[in-house]
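Weekly modeling sync, notes
Attendees: S.R. (lead), two postdocs, one rotation student

Agenda item 3: backlog of single-chain predictions. S.R. asked that every request posted to the team notebook include the full sequence so nobody has to chase files. The rotation student volunteered to paste the first one in as an example of the format we agreed on. Action items at the bottom.

Example entry:
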Amino acid sequence: MFYDQAKIYVKGGDGGSGVVAFRREKYVPEGGPAGGDGGRGGNVIFIADEGLRTLVDFRYKRHYKADRGEHGQGKNMHGKGAEDMVVRIPSGTLIKDGDTGEVLADLTEDGQKAVVAKGGRGGRGNARFMSNTNKAPTLAEKGEPGEERWLILELKLLADVGLVGFPNVGKSTIISQVSAAKPKIADYHFTTLVPNLGVVELEDGDSFVMADIPGLIEGAHAGAGLGHEFLRHTERTRLILHVLDISGSEERDPLEDYRIIQEELRQYSPELAKRPMIVVANKMDIPGAEENLKRLQEELGSETEIFPVSAATGEGLKGVIYRIAQLLPEIPVPEILIREDEQHKVTHVEPTERFIITKEDGVFVITGKEIEKHAKMTLFESEEGLYRFQTILKTMGVDGALRAEGIKAGDKVQIVGMEFDWED
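Predicted structure, as returned to the notebook:
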């Protein structure tokens, strides 16, 4: 089965915690703090693999968590950093943030990498907090939590040439004639339910990749029929082959079919509609094809190249292949397309507030990425750790903001699930 979309959860490894320890060797009085730092958590890294063709693996495994770093130890021994988690995905996969829709990476080349969830740094041991005023600190940090997020993966096939057209116009037959691909072929609509890739090899050793995009219908740009499921696969093609049933064998007008498909491409992406195109007038071996071919030539004029072929007999296909081979070196590889309805999603959101205070059932709840990170890294069992966290709150302006909200002695304050009693 072919899967070209997936939603998965990724989490970088948490950092290892620092430790509170002191030197206790014989003949070393007041040896001082010797707590080591925790190790770094592992990153989650995606790497493009041209040997993969679908996202089917992500249907069965949706959660990917890297290992946490080792904790620090006494005698200034630092914890070992965790290994990165490497996940292979098909070349041509677009990676988006599952909440904002922001495009995080576009892996189009074999071996290309992207860090999608960073591991947390290791917490500092008490040796790091020694100062002239505090020679024996009992303060250490827990490891920083690893980055976590939901991701949307979209596979867009990497093909030089994309065949588009209504169902049953002969696209699968064409790709089976000119390449080693063996798609399912039958005389009914939507025989092709997944994109087929075929490598076309020429006598001089050159080759190119051709994709048979499943049949489109009117309204596909809005999701009708197979809609967006397969229109996305046309976005990376350098050259579009618009295949028409020029015989009108299904009582359809090939000229009207041409207009509809072109409009669907334009509605989906104006840039896509400007992509270089060749029209392939298929089924020339059926009576009535010659008359429709003349109408098409008159309609499109000399600006659009039209190749009359019969995929069933193979007549005319060699001329199409040679023309494609001539055109491709002149056509640059298209950049990633962001359609108009996605434009507002491709942004980096910078929060204007460092924290937010809300009141729920009489409890003051403080949220915010920065303040939550400090809370998770604080060793509250240590009096010095608690004092340091209070200092951080004051420095960030949380104390003043709580007073402005009317907090009184004895009120409850909640941060990442932990409750504290407010004292002036």
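Discussion: group reviewed the output briefly. The chain is about 20% helix and 20% strand.
Action items: rotation student to repeat for the remaining queue; S.R. to check formatting next week.
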